[in-house]
Design a protein that fits this description.
Helices cover about 35% and strands about 25% of the residues. It is of the alpha/beta class. Helix 4 runs parallel beside helix 5, helix 6 runs parallel beside helix 7 and helix 7 packs across helix 11.
Length: about 450
């Protein structure tokens, strides 16, 4: 390995566009030579096209040199050659548990897109992989981009201020103290071009159901915001309920987003009356360290004109509620609101103003709204796009890599998170009337 660089990336079987977003920016300690090991096919070609577009862009072009192997036994070859020391995994989630396990056994660091696992059956192996990684002095880390969104950061910081937020309420199963809801879309724009998804993305045996996929982000945020100083454990989790439901996809919609004229045979169990039913939606209600939370994810085919993915988040405190909304009223830009203020408002606003001035973000302002609520005005320079968050997560991973270890709270948080999501799926599948979909996902 070139001693000039501390890190050389290995990209394994990149089937999801997140693999390319890790390389949307360059890092001083990372070699521009990236070794790609993948089966020949559209997934790999599209990954390389995305990297090439970053290299050719007129503003801040990257200079990646992709060295590609697409022959037989690509994964074994990657493990044998060890041309790098960090494996980036972002693709078919049905293979990810095996890929992670084999990389850790080979002594390679892993930066994995979420979810690391999509089945409760793989949870014991993942726990063992974290233990083995610690013993070997290597890192296993997942890409939690939502921690870097500015309104989420501010929601967390304000929730830690008793003079404003008070204390986090405990709530109940019927009225959780913390709620996080996100809406996503199969058809969308990525890096300025329409996203083409692989057909396997619509197979929950390969991509994972929604309740173990995108909810990974939401469960992570509940943990990260509510209990930043606690070493969480699976014993802190008590699931109350979980459910899942499908998004119908027509042949025309499938063709638009995959480029394929028909549904592949591996999707046959999910097709009814020529409509593909994708179990990409899920919701769970659970108690974490005594606090009741609800997380929910919904997938539509495409957003309304001018729309996009949305995020809704509530944290209820004894002093006020901190609410993030990202709907049409906000022009699909996340906004942080202060609601349900308790006590004298003049005193509250004075305390809030003092807290905002103490934060490591200048020019934050309080806007009074007509309904008596308040909104935090955030300067545009703090508005970083979802695609750019991947560079921020990677930079944090590289920082941990330089230190030689992950903080133990990060490891505990990942174990607790995947215990929560996979347990929720198992609970949802135990409900009545799930049919083939329920059996196929176990």
């Amino acid at each position: 390995m070139d001693e000039k660089y501390e890190v050389r990336l290995l990209t394994a079987d990149p089937g999801h566009f997140h693999a390319a977003l890790v390389q949307k920016t360059m890092y001083p300690q990372v070699s521009p030579d990236v070794y790609v090991y993948a089966p020949e096919g559209p997934d790999c070609r599209k990954h390389l096209e995305r990297i090439a577009s970053y290299n050719k862009r007129p503003v801040n072009p990257t200079a990646w040199n992709e060295i590609v192997y697409t022959g037989p036994g690509f994964f074994e070859k990657m493990l044998q050659e060890k041309k790098g020391n960090v494996v980036v995994l972002s693709g078919n989630n049905g293979k990810k548990a095996e890929y992670i396990d084999r990389c850790i056994k080979a002594g390679l660091n892993v930066l994995a897109d979420k979810p690391m696992i999509i089945s409760k059956d793989d949870f014991p192996t993942l726990v063992n992989d974290f233990r083995a990684a610690g013993e070997k002095g290597i890192l296993l880390y997942d890409i939690m981009t939502e921690r870097y969104e500015i309104t989420t950061i501010l929601q967390k910081l304000l929730s830690q201020e008793p003079s404003v937020f008070g204390w986090l309420e405990t709530g109940s199963a019927d009225d959780p103290a913390v709620t996080k809801i996100s809406v996503h879309h199969f058809s969308k724009m990525v890096s300025g071009v329409p996203l083409q998804r692989p057909a396997w993305y619509f197979d929950v045996k390969q991509q994972g159901e929604g309740i173990v996929d995108v909810t990974t982000h939401l469960v992570d945020l509940v943990q990260w915001e509510c209990f930043p100083d606690k070493m969480l454990d699976t014993s802190d989790v008590l699931l109350n309920s979980a459910r899942r439901w499908p998004t119908p996809i027509s042949p025309g919609q499938f063709r638009k987003v995959t480029g394929l004229d028909s549904f592949p045979a591996f999707l046959k169990d999910w097709i009814s009356d020529s409509i593909l039913n994708v179990y990409s939606n899920g919701e769970m209600v659970y108690r974490l360290n005594g606090v009741w939370a609800k997380v929910s994810v919904t997938w539509n085919f495409e957003p309304a004109a001018g729309g996009g993915d949305t995020h809704f988040s509530v944290m209820r405190g004894t002093g006020c509620s901190l609410v993030i909304k990202q709907g049409p009223e906000e022009k699909f830009v996340p906004m942080l609101y202060i609601k349900n203020i308790k006590g004298d408002r003049t005193s509250f606003l004075s305390r809030l103003g003092n807290v905002l001035k103490s934060l490591p973000y200048d020019s934050l302002e309080i806007e009074k709204l007509g309904n008596g609520d308040y909104r935090i005005s955030v300067p545009s320079r703090y508005r970083v796009s979802h695609e750019e968050h991947f560079g921020q997560v990677t930079a944090k991973f590289l920082e941990y890599l330089k230190n030689g270890e992950l903080p133990q709270w990060e490891v505990n948080a990942m174990i607790t998170k995947y215990f929560t999501t996979t347990s929720a799926l198992r609970l949802a599948l135990s409900g009545p009337g799930e049919g083939k979909a329920g059996n196929a996902s176990k």
